[in-house]
Amino acid sequence: MTASHSDALVLFGVTGDLAHKMIFPALYALAKRGALNIPVIGVAFPKWSIARLHNRVTDSIKRSSGVDNKRALSHLLSNFKYVSGDYNDPGTFTAIKKALGSARRPAHYLAIPPSLFETVIKGLGAAKLAEHARVIVEKPFGRDVASARELNRVAQSVFPEDSIFRIDHFLGKEAIMNILYFRFANSFLEPIWNRNYVASVQITLSEAFGVKGRGAFYETAGCLRDVIQNHLFQIVALLAMEPPATRDFGAVHNEKAKVFEAMRPLKSHDLVRGQYAGYRKEPDVAKNSDVETFCALRLYIDSWRWEGVPWYLRSGKYLADTATEVLVELKPPPQSLFADSAPKTGWPNYLRFQLSPNSAIALAARVKRAGKEFIGDQKELYLEPLTK
To answer: Which CATH superfamily includes the segment(s) 171-383?
Structure first.
């Protein structure tokens, strides 16, 4: 596989939720920067007209950021083609090849249910659409170890390893990338970033809405598989990893892998699962479903840096708010010189990474009130990154 740029994007699942929420806004951002100069071949089962697809794309942009550049939107829409077909039908891939025209290095993005990954990859191979091409596979990559290994085997039988991109879109968020930057671009954090000073780490991803018509998918995943074992575990790795020797992918990957290897296996008492009232009435959800829509767990990382520090992860739907944040709770001072600074009086010092809906970093510390008495209050030093 050469390092040449892809000359077309084939977007499987173009009518789906992931494309509408994430991919169309990303393509629009590329168009605004003048960086989208390749055709986009949308593929899905519904027999949509190109006009209907254009309306879907436009609706996505309006809901995401608003149309602030009509010329860029027009350019994006003009790049779209649409292929309707069943992924089990070889004719669908013949139609894709025709739509690609002179393009010879397409990137195939599988924004489709995980159960169809293998079908599409085999179809690409059979239609000779894998040569000089790339394949991008969204999470989840398999349901368990056995299925992940089998999917890996199928992918590698069609594409060379350096042409297979297993991705988690969560890692592309600005606030997530800032965790890595903030940790290793500043020197003041390292002395306290260990078991001697950190009492616990809490990571929360809460959503104030339900499954939003995605009941069929959620029945195959559940909260634990949907966001915790990928999104939240990636945040854990970024927070817990040792400094990589360099910033390249391999060095970061190796340090993150060491964190996963050091995770203590979960016991039943480390995990809580729940389901919001009314979930079983959602479309495509089993009447007696035991799939969790809320999950909380406690894990430990048995490493020199983190031994004994509990990490609390929680996520769920139909909770009080939609937000994602990390709270790193620090241990209290070893001596309580001031009565109101003892741990029992309130929150300890902490560092807080707010990841969504807005990106921010906050440090909580006690500050003395004006007057003769040594009494204080907990205050946050709040840092909000500048927006472009």
So the answer is: Dihydrodipicolinate Reductase; domain 2 (3.30.360.10)
Measured CA to CA, the distance from residue 53 to residue 273 in angstroms comes to: 38
The residues with which 328 forms a beta bridge, in sequence order, are 201, 351
CB-based contacts of 291, cutoff 8 Å, min separation 6: 218, 219, 221, 222, 275, 279, 285
Is pLDDT of 2 > 70? no
Buried b (16+ CB within 10 A) or exposed e, 129-144: bbeebbbbbbbbbbee
- CB distance 238 to 232 below 8 Å: no
Convert the pLDDT of each residue in 134-150 to its tens digit. Answer: 999 987 788 888 999 99
Report whether 42 contacts 24 (CB < 8 A).
Answer: no
d(CA 8, CA 13): 16
**In the chain, count of helices (H) and strands (E)?**
11, 14
Answer whether 218's CB lies under 8 Å from 330's CB: no
Q: What is the pTM of this model?
A: 0.83
Residue range(s) in the chain whose domain bears CATH number 3.30.360.10: 171-383
pLDDT of 335-368, one tens digit each? 778 877 665 656 789 999 998 888 889 999 888 8
Q: Of residues 54, 231, 253, 269, which has the active-site annotation?
A: 231
CATH architecture of 8-167: 3-Layer(aba) Sandwich (3.40)
The question of whether 231 is a catalytic residue gets the answer: yes
Residues 6+ apart with CB under 8 A from 254: 244
- Burial grade of 350 (CB within 10 A; 0-12, 13-18, 19 or more): buried
Q: Which of 213, 168, 160 is nearest to 2 (CA)?
A: 160
